[in-house]
Each structure stands twice: as C-alpha cells, then as structure tokens.
Amino acid sequence: MTLDKRIEQVKPRRCDLFAEKYRKIEILGKGNFGQVFLAEEVATQKKVAIKVVDTKRFKNEDQKMHAENEKQVCKLFQKKIKHKHIVDVLDIAVFDKSIYFVLEYVNGGELYERIKQQGKISEPQAKRWFRELIEAVAHIHENGIVHRDLKPENVLVDKSGKIRLCDFGFGKIFEPNKLLDTYCGSPFYAAPEMVTSTPYRGPPVDMWSCGVILYAMLTGQLPFHCDTMPELFVKINLARYTEPSALSNQVLHLIKSLLCRNPKRRITAEGVLNHPWLNDQATNHQIKKMIRIPSAMSTTFKGHGYYKTKIRSSSYPTTFNIMSSSSSPTSTLPSPVISVGDEELASYSTPSSDQQKASKATRFLLNAISKKSQVAPSREKTRDSSRKGKD
C-alpha cells in the first residue's frame, strides 16, 4: 500500500475546536478561503496558531486538491517527520466542511522582517540561518515532500534565534520518478521551470528558491527584479542576475550553484550542506578555481531596493495564484504576454511547443495579476491530460 493511500485512510476527527478546546485571541491573517487565528488551549493556556480553511468557498476541484495536498503533508508532520527547524503541526480536524490546522505558535517574526529592518544579514549570521533552513528543506525532500513556496515570509525566526520553516499551502507529496505540473509560489522566487510552464521535479524548484533567499539575505536585494512580469520571467528563464562584488567567492559559488538554469545540474540540499561556504573547507585558491565568473557577470552590483520598499505590500503580486491587493506592478502594465518568438526565449522552445508555451505563459501571468489572496490556490491546468506525472 502506498504512503498516499495510507494517509487517505486516516480520516480527520470531526469537532468544533473553538467550542471544545481552544479560545480565539485574535486574527493573524485572512484569505479568500479562510483565516489564521492566534488561539489559546483552554486546558493548558498554551498559545497556538490555527489555520481554518473553509472548503465551502472552493469554486472548483483544483482548489479542493490543493487543500487535500496541504492536509496530507500536515498529517505527515503531525505523525512522523517532525524537525527542529520546521513549525510543528499539533492537530488537524474537520468540522462543518472547514479544515482546522493547529500549529505551533512561533512568536519571533519572519525572516523577511529581519532583512527589511537590518537592510541585509551579515555573512556569519546568514551562514547559520541558511544552514538551518537547508537542514529543514533537506528533511522534507528526504521524506518525499516539496514546499514550492520558499521565501523569507515563510521562514520564521523564533525567540531563541533559530529558523523555523512554515506554511505548506503549496506543499506536495511527490514521487521521485514523476513530474509535477502545478505552477505556484512567488514569481520573484520561482525557478525557470515554473515561469516557462515546464513539467518539473519538486526538489530542484525548492533549491532555486533557496538561492534567491540567500541572495536576498546577504544583499537586501532580489537577484531577479523588473518593472513588468514578462521581463521578470525572461530574466529568470535566462538565470540573468548580477553578482555582488562585495560577497566572498565561496558564497558566490553557492548562489551560482543554486541559481542554475538546468534543474539537473542545480545543487541539492545535501550538496549545500556539504558546500565549503557552510563548512569552511576550501582555501581561497580552491574557491577561485571552482568559481569562474564571466566578465559580463562580474560588474558592480546595482540592484533594486526590494527590502526597502516592501514589495509584499505594494502592487506586485507575491505569488502566481495568490495576490496581495492591486492588479499591476506599474500604473500602466504592458500586455501580460511573453513572446516566445523573441531571440532570448526561442532557443529554449521547440517549434511544436512554442504556441502552447506562449499560451501557458500568458495564462500564468494573467493569474498573477488578477487573483486576490486565497488560502488554497487554484491550479494551472495542462493541455495534455494524458501526460504522465500529473500533479
């Protein structure tokens, strides 16, 4: 019996948690399909975070599928695969067609806020936090789970200064030999496979996002940032970013290994944990030999002040299928279409797939600039329903 089928047989118990066990304190966040509450367990007065997803608000089967994915992932965290750098799942319950996720309350703030407040994170501190994040990511990958929405907003720093990974709303239990085709997460942290609507393996997508997080931690900037989403997607697809001259050769090599266009060559979580930057194992001569920076990439760093302007609360969308508020990154957003006929993108598409990829990219962008916040995102359907590895 497969792991997925065993999980499906474990039916969540039915109860009104807020009537029987917990007392609401305040609302921490809202979405189209539910809310997140700070609550207190009546018996112990222990504070918890409770995410409530109202399935009655779902409009299609795809949204139900995402909620089921999150429920299955959280069951694994509750029963089996706990980790010191992942927020604990304490309980899962269903009542009146709502799913209750009872989570450990981490009262320390987001990594996002730390970067915003400090401008950037010092290299020694970033090294410690990044190792903790990768330890968490390696753990979920080893247990067949992919996050698909790794970003500083989903990384918490607890009171003791330790990293805690959270929010598996886009999480998925994957099989190593099957491809996924749900395109989700934040555009700024998305891998080339995501922005080109290419079926993908889960772990490499997470590792790309980790590369963007590391870059953001050390510079206070984003490696890929443009005035429009089409321009952003072109830059991501080409892995075109500027390497900051102030960073050490070791960390530049690690970032380059993470932000690798080819997912088959992209470094794994295990590879990151063994990288010299996290272990101080290589000499400067070895690192200079290991990293060969093209002259076009070794220019002086000139980035956009992402963490000084807080795009998350601005008009930029924070996820492909989850929106903040406004509908466009500028007052006059160009037509949201990526032209696959452009010289930059044409070499990555076969003539038979150009039209299909352009159509997918168009729908992809339209989703990014038109949908409002939601707890369970909708799914971008594929054209070929018979293709193997369906997500």
Automatic annotation (TrEMBL):
Species source reads Mucor flavus
Protein kinase domain residues: 22-278
Task: State the organism's lineage.
Answer: Eukaryota, Fungi, Fungi incertae sedis, Mucoromycota, Mucoromycotina
Pfam families attached here? Pkinase (PF00069)
> What start and end residues bound the annotated signal peptide?
none
Q: Which residues fall in a compositionally biased region of kind Basic and acidic residues? A: 378-391
Where are the stretches annotated Disordered? 369-391
Give the residues the record marks as binding ATP: 51
UniProt-listed SUPFAM superfamilies: Protein kinase-like (PK-like)
Keyword entries, A-Z = ATP-binding, Kinase, Nucleotide-binding, Serine/threonine-protein kinase, Transferase
Which InterPro entries does the record cross-reference, listed alphabetically?
Kinase-like_dom_sf, Prot_kinase_dom, Protein_kinase_ATP_BS, Ser/Thr_kinase_AS
Q: What is this protein called?
A: Protein kinase domain-containing protein
- Keyword Electron transport listed? The answer is no
Q: Look up the domain of life of the source.
A: Eukaryota
Record-stated family:
Belongs to the protein kinase superfamily.
